[in-house]
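Researcher: Here's the sequence for the chain we discussed earlier.
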Amino acid sequence: MAPFPADIVACPDCDLLQRVPALSPGGTARCARCGLALWSNRPGSLDRSMALAAAALIAFILANMEPLMRVSVSGRTSSTTILGGVQTMWLQGEKITALLVALFVVVAPAIDIVFTLAVLLASRRPPAPRWVGAMLRWMELSGIWSMVGVMMLGIMVSLVKISSLARVEPGIGIFAVGALVFLLAGMSAGFEPRKIWPRVRWDDGEWPETGR
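Model: Thanks. This is the structure I predict for it:
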């Protein structure tokens, strides 16, 4: 059976099958039925995504290694990191909460960043290995479960409430978390899987560029 044409796509909103034409740099293809943007030709988007992913990895490491804040009450000072907070919740019996925080704030963002970097690095010189296709599918799930922005909102609420009771000094970790929120958003918005798929080697060993 002849392979399905690579330029035929289904609209995610209305399921209309249509052919995506060759686009000039900066051009955008929209669904003929509902107008949803299906594809944009943004030169250098993969390089920008790699730069954002590398910066997000650095911010992620700092966010988990450096203190989020320092709280001083009656001469006593205390500070903690994200992982330290997870450990404290676990030791205090809040095991479900600790697991949820670890999953949504630590594990999911880490998988999202590492998978993005791995996919971009492996696909720089096509053909890319077959495992790149599997990672592209897993990336859709890891991005959904990453909730660093929700944690940042919780930290800001906590700062407002604690400031009336104690002296609070933001640490490097909280600035790293803030930067991580924007870097993850930029990384996800700029990442274009459609540019990666044509570079992935098929299961039968063929390469899409030569197997058509």
